[in-house]
Amino acid sequence: MALFRLPYSFPSTLPSFFPKILLPVPSFSISCSSKSTPNQLKNNDDNSNPDNPKKPKRLSEQSSWEAKDSEGRDYLYRLGKEADNMNIAVGARAGVIDDLFTGNFLGKDSDIVFDYRQKATRSFEYLQGDYYIAPVFLDKVACHIVKNYLAHLLNVKIPLILGVWGGKGQGKTFQTELIFQAMGIEPVIMSAGELESDRAGEPGKLIRERYRTASQVVQNQGKMSCLMINDIDAGLGRFGNTQMTVNNQIVVGTLMNLSDNPTRVSIGQDWRESDITNRVPIIVTGNDFSTIYAPLIRDGRMEKFYWQPTKEDIVNIVHRMYEKDGISKDEVVSIVETFPNQALDFYGALRSRTYDRSISKWIEDIGGIENLGNKLLRRKKNEELPVYTPPQNNY
């Protein structure tokens, strides 16, 4: 912008070529700027008039970018505060974000993590068949879940976490999943591998997010839910000279905080006063809880349940396992007595080994190991595999 100013009066001494009679020259300014349209001038006049305030124009009627939260802050402010400035949790979905940002080159649904978020819960459709649930195990897990859902009605201190521990391969996780299926629970399941990260604080934040996801299942779908962490001692336990990392400390602190205050869970750095979370129980499994930080496993926060199946439980579970093979219960008792003091996964591996001889014969029938690639992967769509005959078990 260029600006020129002329003085109100000239000096008294003037060159000879100027005329003798001079009139006063008013002061004025010339500014060079971009061309303004009449509509812009009209909008400026409307906004400058305090008697006629004009509502600011929205991006679109369905825009969520200008939506305000309970504290009066817009969506982008909350996203920047809570998402670590990495916008991977919110993608361009038609009808949710403005269509301007949902280009056709990625399709209308270009949110890469939407499918993962939709499948955060487990529904156990793959558990087909009649399985045996130990009555003691069922009573402990069901009682813990019901107590936590009735915590606001009971005048007692109820631990939020149930720790199921015992020997390896005793079916702790599988029995728990069978109970979830029987009770119609859709849990959010984590593993010990998610309790460590190369970024400090990420596992603790992940636990809080998964806990809130389970709470939203209760609120939005009307189904019971819980948070389950498998093999927690593998992620938090201290074995020999292993190091204690920052993430280990944050995860332990997060679980302790959830146990002490299960209805208020923060995701970002700020607490939201109006954000109340439904209480959902937490179930963890492990082999040795003595390796975990002691204040976390105290009675007020975690209720411990040692699972050691009896001989009757083992016989019933193995019988359901071998039922499809036509093995009677007496034969199962004979198997258990032949191999005493074995974990449940031993009998599952024993059943799997009975198929090895039949599979070896099947490989020979299709022409040997040289033809495995053609038969298994590169066969035609309408070409069927050779018939496989299961073994005849005789115990």
Automatic annotation (TrEMBL):
InterPro entries: ATPase_AAA_core, P-loop_NTPase, RCA-like, RuBisCO_activase_AAA_helical
Pfam family, one: AAA
Keyword Transmembrane helix: no
Cellular localization per UniProt: Plastid, Chloroplast stroma
PANTHER family (alphabetical): PTHR32429, RIBULOSE BISPHOSPHATE CARBOXYLASE_OXYGENASE ACTIVASE, CHLOROPLASTIC
Feature: compositional bias, Basic and acidic residues: 52-67
Family: Belongs to the RuBisCO activase family.
Residues covered by the Ribulose bisphosphate carboxylase/oxygenase activase AAA helical domain: 311-392
Function as written in the Swiss-Prot or TrEMBL entry: Activation of RuBisCO (ribulose-1,5-bisphosphate carboxylase/oxygenase; EC 4.1.1.39) involves the ATP-dependent carboxylation of the epsilon-amino group of lysine leading to a carbamate structure.
Keywords carried by this UniProt record: ATP-binding, Chloroplast, Nucleotide-binding, Plastid
UniProt name for this protein: Ribulose bisphosphate carboxylase/oxygenase activase, chloroplastic
Region (Disordered) residue spans: 34-67
An example Gene Ontology CC term for this record: chloroplast stroma
Single annotated GO MF: ATP hydrolysis activity
Domain ATPase AAA-type core stretches: 164-308
Lineage top rank: taxon: Eukaryota
Taxon lineage: Eukaryota, Viridiplantae, Streptophyta, Embryophyta, Tracheophyta
